[in-house]
Amino acid sequence: MTMAKIETLCVQGGYSPKNGEPRQIPIIQSTTFKYDTSEDMGKLFDLEASGYFYTRLQNPTNDTVAARICALEGGSAAMLTSSGQAANFYAVFNIANCGDHVVACSAIYGGTYNLFAVTMKKMGIDFTFVSPDCTDEELDAAFRPNTKALFGETIANPALSVLDIEQFAKAAHRHGVPLIVDNTFATPVNCRPIEWGADIVTHSTTKYMDGHGSAVGGCIVDSGHFDWDRYADKYPGLTTPDESYHGVIYTKQFGLGGAFITKATSQLMRDFGSIQSPQNAFILGLGLESLHVRMRRHCENAQKVAEFLSGHEKIAWVSYCGLPGDKYHERAKKYLPEGSCGVVSFGVKGGRKAAEAFMKKLRVAAIETHVADARTCCLHPASATHRQMNDEELLAAGVSPDLVRLSVGLESADDLIEDIAQALS
Ligand SMILES: *Cc1c(COP(=O)(O)O)cnc(C)c1O
User: Reduced to 3 states, what is the DSSP secondary structure of residue 58?
Assistant: First the structure.
């Protein structure tokens, strides 16, 4: 599709039906696909021909929706996964294995932190965490000869720090590794990390992309820009024969634009099986159609709520990069000129207890382990998503014990502000 505008890509990207074909993306609710000869199927198994044979690896509905997200992010190839967790795991594990090392920003989603610091560590991959505000020197010092990737979130969940994508991309490239950016909170409507030098973009599509709290899902987009062949010794999985596919060399057969996603699909999806159901992919596709409209409204509402909170006597602090005094306001102007997201973090005076009491009194906003859907919801991360962390780790992740994460939805901003006001009083 040559239509370049983000709004058009949200609505029509990735799917151009031919004469007489369905206008809406069809749900191919089939585990398997039929072939006339075993030779035909054998070619698929050897990756000599492209096509579908089993939905654990690939499904046409999923591929169509992935193509839409790929177009939105300006990537070369993309794949859906069953969740954001699976997306981040695959994105890193596709290039970092036992004995390798990864540098990650410390301000990241609690589930991702746990995946890296606990579960992937058990798999023999070491992680070094750096502050989102680190200097170039601090960043450089975190790299080792066996470092395979640098990882960060455009807008960190729930710390809401804004990543200096250019700084991180330059550091990654100085050390010959790709930058992976989780763009869940900003969405490609508000920021396209590839334009700032990121090499791989991941998403929890569970959040704004679906937008209605209906379907858990994830996505990985490759820019096709990182030159794996230039660092062939570092990335043998992409640049040397894969014996489990009759010796295919991913960079040779699929080029820089296709190697990363083809390997993640044919090895990781084959072996771990975290596929998104075609039904969920369809729901995600529906969500994408209105993403650009919804993001504008989420940001408008959040701005109003953040301004109200910052002027309230019972609020200790507010974190929202749309506020002029915010620590990340200037960085947001560069990377998020049209808005950031609908999530606002703040502290209620009186700490943890006051935060819990306040949340109990809310009527429009509900307490949920969720963000970024049409309905306003709130969470106390220190007692929920981040409860496995000690105080030191909480601090490094930008989560104070009194932090309330409010995900501002698409209701009337007036009603939301009235609800917050009555709960505070
Ligand atoms: C929610 C979230 C994830 C995990 O996604 P799931 O779809 O819940 O598995 C990863 N990264 C960020 C930034 C998130 O907000």
Answer: coil
Three-class DSSP category at 376: coil
How many whole angstroms separate alpha carbon 424 and alpha carbon 350? 12
Q: What is the pTM of this model?
A: 0.96
Ligand 1 lining (C-beta closer than 6 Å):
83-85, 88, 109, 111-112, 153, 157, 182, 184-185, 204, 206-207, 216, 218
Neighbours of 325 (CB within 10 A): 7
CA–CA separation, 357 vs 344, rounded Å? 18
CA distance 307 to 324: 10
Cβ neighbors of 186 (< 8 A, separation 6 or more) are: 154, 155, 335, 336, 340, 341
Interatomic CA distance for residues 80 and 373, integer angstroms: 19
pLDDT tens column, 118-152: 999 999 999 999 999 999 999 999 999 999 999 99
